[in-house]
């Protein structure tokens, strides 16, 4: 699927840093499952590529398992953020590095380019919905070694914990918020809401990309992000909640389309005030408003023959 998403691609380093500070990382159990599945199905641990790496947290976390790790992102601002936030002996030695490249190029634009049949694993965390998947799979087939893996994952569909005061009304307001920003969804946003069930795979595109084992395809779903996100199903205060929602690409596009709607007129601020009101109606004291929620998580792993 070719998409026209340019919101994250045009991020400045300041926007990248804000994104890094306000997006939740993934649970260590998820990282462990990905590496364990890769190695148990014949994968080696020499070179990893993290595609759409953003501020670099996934590449940094997984780099401890691999000799070489390369984070790729089309956004110069994101790559600048990743380099700034991940300065370490591993990064200084070149074992962890970040470069500007698209999922479709997959390092072919670098000097030297990422060599054919040189990569053990490719990962893409909450990013594949922006890829031109046929072009990505062709590049993945080129750079992956035999026995290599492509692990793709993400989460979607906010759900309020039943233990949250006034949970039913809050969930209705969450659904209303989704409807308000829906006009600013791109096809990639719809793919995440569908839990990647319609994501193009090597054997579903036309023409199919050879070299991948359909029979070895692996998928796992989480009903909640308890063991998917680093904080599980977190209870978060409203400041954090507002900042997290502000990193969503449809929200960014809504704000670009409504430059006059600042402060209390902002779509996220209005949403936040309504949630605070619903919590106070349920007896939560002012200034103590927190919401506990989760989302559905999903993981897909494709193997190279």
UniProtKB/TrEMBL annotation:
One of its GO terms (molecular function) is S-adenosylmethionine-dependent methyltransferase activity. InterPro entries: Diverse_substrate_MTase (IPR051052), Methyltransf_11 (IPR013216), SAM-dependent_MTases_sf (IPR029063). It holds the Pfam family Methyltransf_11. Signal peptide: none annotated. Coiled coil: none annotated. SUPFAM superfamilies: S-adenosyl-L-methionine-dependent methyltransferases. Residues 49-152 form the Methyltransferase type domain. PANTHER family: METHYLTRANSF_11 DOMAIN-CONTAINING PROTEIN, METHYLTRANSFERASE TYPE 11 DOMAIN-CONTAINING PROTEIN. This is Methyltransferase type 11 domain-containing protein.
């Amino acid at each position: 699927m070719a998409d026209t998403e340019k919101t994250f691609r045009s991020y400045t380093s300041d926007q990248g840093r804000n994104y890094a500070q306000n997006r939740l990382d993934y649970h260590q159990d998820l990282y462990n499952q990905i590496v364990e599945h890769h190695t148990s199905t014949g994968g080696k641990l020499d070179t990893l590529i993290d595609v759409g790496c953003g501020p670099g947290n996934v590449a940094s976390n997984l780099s401890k398992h691999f000799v070489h790790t390369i984070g790729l992102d089309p956004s110069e601002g994101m790559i600048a953020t990743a380099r700034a936030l991940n300065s370490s002996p591993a990064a200084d030695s070149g074992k962890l590095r970040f470069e500007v490249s698209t999922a479709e190029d997959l390092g072919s634009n670098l000097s030297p380019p990422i060599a054919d049949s040189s990569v053990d694993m490719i990962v893409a965390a909450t990013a594949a919905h922006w890829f031109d998947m046929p072009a990505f799979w062709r590049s993945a087939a080129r750079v992956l070694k035999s026995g290599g893996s492509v692990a793709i994952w993400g989460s979607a569909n906010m759900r309020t914990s039943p233990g949250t005061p006034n949970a039913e009304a809050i969930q209705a307001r969450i659904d209303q918020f989704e409807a308000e920003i829906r006009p600013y969804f791109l096809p990639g946003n719809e793919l995440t809401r569908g839990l990647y069930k319609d994501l193009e795979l090597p054997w579903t595109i036309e023409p199919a990309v050879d070299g991948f084992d359909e029979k070895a395809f692996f998928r796992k779903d989480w009903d909640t992000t308890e063991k998917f996100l680093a904080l599980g199903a977190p209870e978060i205060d409203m400041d954090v909640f507002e900042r997290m929602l502000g990193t969503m690409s449809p929200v960014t596009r809504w704000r670009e389309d409504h430059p006059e709607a600042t402060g209390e007129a902002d779509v996220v601020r209005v949403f936040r005030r309504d949630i605070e009101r619903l919590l106070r109606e349920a007896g939560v004291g002012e200034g103590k408003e927190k919401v506990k929620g989760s989302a559905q998580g999903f993981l897909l792993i494709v193997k190279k023959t």
